[in-house]
Amino acid sequence: MASEGVLATLQAGWQALGTCGAERAVIGGLALSAWNHARYTRDADVLIAIDRGRIDELVQSLTAAGFHPRHQPPLRWIDGQGIIQFLFQPDGALMPFQFDVLLAGSDFHREAVARAVDRRLPGGMLPVRVVQPDDLIVIKLLAGRIIDLADAAMVLRENRDAIDVSRLERSIVELGLTADYQRIRQDAFPGEADPPAVR
């Protein structure tokens, strides 16, 4: 479950990023809660489609809102993924929460941001743009940690009727994620045969 502090962090960060005028979408643990899989998380993650030349503007917008970059220089690259990590302490919170801004650098990530839909998160927060469940599954498979694979299986199971299966399977094949997809699909739907596209 997302704590009030995480939701407050997302709300403040979401508003600050809005001043940049770039398309953005919630991913990570908070996106899971938007798609029927509540899991405890202590950070908020946003994927943003912004030109690299505007990174300083992005950092300044968040800094002006009370966010503090965790690293200098703020932008880091992890396995080819650009990420800027911030800490933010909401009013009344005893400790800061992490706010991660990931750059949508690939065609898939930019398309995922463009396809995002408005969803209301638990806790009464105003609707925010959240990546669609099939894109969230792919993002989790790309991350590749055990917890991410478990999350992907749960999103697949809990949103079966809402997922664009053909788009999901096309992304799986194009990004070389077939083996991991087969694994999480068996976890989500034990005993079902894999579809021909991903065998």
What features would you describe in this structure?
With 199 residues, the chain is α+β, with helices and mostly antiparallel strands. The protein has two domains: 1-131, Beta Polymerase, domain 2 (2-Layer Sandwich); 132-192. 43% of the residues lie in helices and 20% in strands. It has eight helices and eight strands, in the order αβαβαββββαββαααα. It has helices at 4-18, 28-34, 55-64, 107-115, 133-143, 146-158, 165-174, 178-188; strands at residues 23-27, 43-49, 68-69, 75-78, 81-88, 97-103, 117-119, 128-130. Strands 1, 2, 3, 4, 5 and 6 form a six-stranded mixed sheet that branches. A hairpin with an 8-residue loop joins strand 7 (117-119) and strand 8 (128-130). The longest helix is centred in the first third of the chain and has 15 residues, at 4-18. The chain is globular and about 50 Å long. The mean pLDDT is 92.
Relative helix content: 40-55%
Principal-axis shape equals globular
Q: What is the H-and-E element order?
A: HEHEHEEEEHEEHHHH
Domain module count? 2
Q: Which oligomerization state do the chains in this entry correspond to?
A: single chain
Fraction in beta strands: 15-25%
Biggest pleated-sheet summary: 6 strands, mixed
**Individual helix count:** 8
Distance between the termini: 35 Å
Q: How many beta-strand runs? A: 8
Low-pLDDT regions: none
CATH names the topology of the largest domain as: Beta Polymerase, domain 2
- Per CATH, the class of the largest domain reads Alpha Beta
Structural category is: alpha+beta
Mean pLDDT: 92
The CATH architecture term of the largest domain is 2-Layer Sandwich
Radius of gyration: 17 Å
